[in-house]
């Protein structure tokens, strides 16, 4: 099997490079030349709204659409904060937009990797050939899923949200076998960040936490206790309550 590993890496690298080339062409084709002769990059309209909030925040105006008007016109706080970091680094608005689109490529590659790792977790016990084939298929299919790719490259929080939810799922699956306490405390933090990315991630978070409770109680883990589970849930609930209190 060790002799096949370099070939496996080459296949994964080839898929990743092919995706990067395709994504670069997608970003280029979505840009345009304005009447001033300059090329401009643009995002989906909702993402451009988030960019305006992010630009104002990074330039000292505040987390507002217009100066002095404290209206919360976003539902993706974590993505706005990420955008504000980008607009702080790049003072050219078009370049800042391009940087966000490039981050979409990185999120998609990370999502493909996490999906592959999840496939690896759920295929334990299968033959090495079947596990390898499943990993390659999941890596390729993730990068081929156009709706996820489109929204990620157009600046929406979809790529970031998918990344956080996949990471939460991977932590739960790993914990059922490793019982790693560090993973236990990271899981509600990751899911909490997903809530800050989009509040409706509460629904998959509840499913993930329910599976965690079920797996821990079934295996009678040494970490399992109602007080411990309450602590995990309380840690997660800090993230929804935080924005409410700061308002």
TrEMBL record:
GO biological process, one term: lipopolysaccharide biosynthetic process
Protein name: Glycosyltransferase RgtA/B/C/D-like domain-containing protein
Domain of life: Bacteria
Keyword Transmembrane helix carried by entry: yes
Source species of the chain: Candidatus Thiomargarita nelsonii
Any GO MF annotation of the entry: pentosyltransferase activity
Transmembrane segments: 7-28, 73-90, 96-116, 154-173, 185-214, 226-245
Topology in the lipid bilayer: Multi-pass membrane protein
Record localization: Cell membrane
GO cellular component: plasma membrane
